[in-house]
Design brief:
The structure holds 2 protein chains of 2 kinds. By secondary structure, chain A is α+β, with helices and mostly antiparallel strands. Chain A is built from 9 helices and 12 strands. Chain A has helices spanning 2-5, 34-43, 81-85, 112-116, 145-148, 155-159, 176-183, 206-209, 220-232; strands at 20-25, 52-53, 56-61, 64-69, 72-73, 91-93, 100-102, 123-124, 138-139, 165-169, 186-187, 199-202. The chains are: A alpha+beta, B mainly alpha. The structure holds iron/sulfur cluster (SF4) (2 copies).
Chain lengths: 235, 286
């Protein structure tokens, strides 16, 4: 049955292969945005787009309110719809490690991968950039492939002040991520999409991560922010 | 998340809906030209429908290429080393190219008055033309996370939309040339618009009774600005009204048919636009 359980692209539990994953412990995240900043610095991520971001929701009733943070990034899905949607193979999965990466020189900019990612993890790079010559193609988080392959942790993980982000090989039963995933209740985002995400959340309240009716009647002030953002980012 | 500090865009802009519109008409017009080899009443459309189909194919290609953020790289889609056949876009690219090649060959064979080859090319071209609305439907269907798009209806709905818009354009091309053609085109419009209407009803039903993303999408598509375009222009003005008009005695006259054709074209564009945009709204909040 095992061959039926895994699609050919999946590497979780495949002997001899690494399958990197991130665990995000929401109980520890203080919403300092250091991860966003470290990522921006690591990759010269342009203004207005993000490889990782930390949205929040205010929960509770005044005066007992708090911000509930949920750091986000590409889930480096084990069965990524973005890879199958790309007509020219510009989005691909590295079998050993499970990184979902981009061939920037191949991407034609059809945005099919953006349409197929259920997590909004992808974005279009601007037409001109000051320090980097990769422009007008789709980009996303790489799980810091260049660092991980040299034995370093991703930039966001290293910088996280609350140690809310933990990174490692899920196929190694002795790794910290394996221990956390096997001993604590974790959740992934939108598991019903069949993508098999590899970012696991501890302490995620699905009530806060789902669309909810707030989408239909968002707070006026947030809608103004949204319109201003779209105006300044060419939507 | 309900509250947010980062906002997301819809990846596919309205250019795609114009492309869906023009390529659908192009495919259906080619089919009308093919019919002319087998049904005498379509004879007046043979050349005119084909020429307009070809012009629309060229416009569609340009629209598609200009919407790429790297237009000069569109040739990558023909590179066998790159092609990824799990993507409907790869199939669509090949379908478009082969349809274009067959259209060119058909043009020359018609000019040479080579009836045998023209007939064969017409049939081949029609099969490829059928593939165009089917692949555009699949382009949307395969995104399992998108309400409205991710239904098996999409490819069939796009075929019906292609026929309805193509027949509407053909009725303008036909003018008052032939009474028999007039009758056939009216039937085409009526049946394909009826099929579109039936599919829209089931689409609305499954979307309204779907999961949270679908239910919210239903609310977006049936209220506010998009509701006006989808329900008002697409369904009522652009599908229901022309069906009623075509059934009425006035719809059997040329003036009535032209009016119905115009409404169907406006409706066809509105439906394509609202389906494209509707499937993308909710996720911009995720
Ligand atoms: S999160 Fe999105 S971009 Fe990342 S692998 Fe999954 S589908 Fe692809
Ligand atoms: S935008 Fe680029 S990476 Fe995305 S599907 Fe198109 S070619 Fe592939």
């Amino acid at each position: 049955m095992s061959e039926l359980r895994l699609s050919s692209i999946e590497t979780r539990g495949v002997p001899g292969k690494k399958r990197y994953a991130m665990v995000i412990d929401l109980r520890r995240c203080i919403g300092c945005d250091a991860c966003m900043t470290a990522c921006k610095a690591e990759f010269d991520v342009p203004v207005g787009v993000f490889r990782t971001w930390v949205p929040y929701r205010v929960v509770g009733t005044y005066p007992n309110v708090r911000k509930h943070f949920m750091p986000r990034l590409c889930n480096h899905c084990d069965d990524p719809p973005c890879v199958r949607a790309c007509p020219v193979g510009a989005t691909y999965k590295v079998e050993d490690g499970g990184f979902v990466l981009q061939h920037y020189d191949r991407c034609i900019g059809c945005k099919a991968c953006m349409a197929s990612c259920p997590y909004n993890a992808r974005f279009m790079l601007p037409k001109s950039r000051t320090y980097t010559d990769i422009t007008s193609v789709v980009d996303k988080c790489t799980f810091c492939h260049h660092r991980v392959t040299q034995g370093l942790a991703p930039a966001c993980v290293v910088t996280c002040i609350g140690r809310a982000r933990i990174f490692g090989d899920l196929n190694d039963p002795a790794s910290e991520v394996s221990r956390l995933v096997s001993t604590l209740p974790t959740q992934v985002l939108r598991p019903e999409e069949g993508t098999k995400p590899h970012v696991f959340y501890i302490g995620l309240d699905r009530h806060n991560s789902e669309f909810g009716r707030a989408v239909y009647s968002p707070l006026e002030v947030l809608e103004e922010d949204r319109q201003a953002f779209n105006k300044n980012h060419g939507a | 998340m309900g509250d947010f500090n980062i906002f997301h865009h819809m990846p596919w802009s309205s250019t795609y809906s114009i492309y869906f519109f023009t390529i659908g008409i192009s495919a259906a017009l080619f089919f009308m030209s093919t019919l002319s080899w087998y049904r005498e009443e379509f004879r007046p459309l043979r050349a005119s429908a084909f020429y307009l189909s070809f012009v629309l194919l060229a416009i569609s290609g340009l629209l598609l290429i200009s919407d790429l953020s790297k237009p000069a790289r569109f040739l990558n889609i023909m590179n066998p080393a790159y092609l990824n056949f799990t993507s409907p876009l790869a199939w669509g690219g090949l379908n478009l190219l082969s349809f274009g090649a067959v259209s060119v060959a058909y043009f020359f064979m018609m000019r040479k008055n080579d009836e045998g080859t023209s007939r064969k090319l017409a049939v081949l071209g029609s099969l490829l033309a059928l593939g165009l609305p089917i692949y555009t439907g699949f382009d949307l269907t395969v995104h399992q996370n998108r309400p409205v798009w991710n239904t098996p209806l999409m490819p069939i709905l796009f075929v019906a939309l292609s026929l309805v818009s193509g027949a509407a354009v053909a009725s303008f091309l036909a003018g008052g040339k032939s009474e028999k053609l007039h009758v056939m085109l009216r039937r085409f419009m009526l049946w394909s618009a009826g099929a579109v209407g039936a599919m829209l009803i089931s689409l609305l039903g499954t979307t309204a009774y779907g999961g949270s993303g679908q239910e919210l999408t239903f609310m977006f598509m049936t209220s506010g600005a998009l509701g006006g375009i989808f329900i008002g222009v697409g369904i009522l003005l652009g599908t229901a009204a022309p069906i009623l008009l075509l059934l009425a005695p006035f719809g059997r006259q040329q003036g009535g048919m032209m009016l119905a054709a115009l409404l169907l074209l406006v409706g066809g564009m509105a439906l394509r636009y609202s389906i494209l945009v509707g499937g993308q709204i909710v996720q911009t909040y995720f």
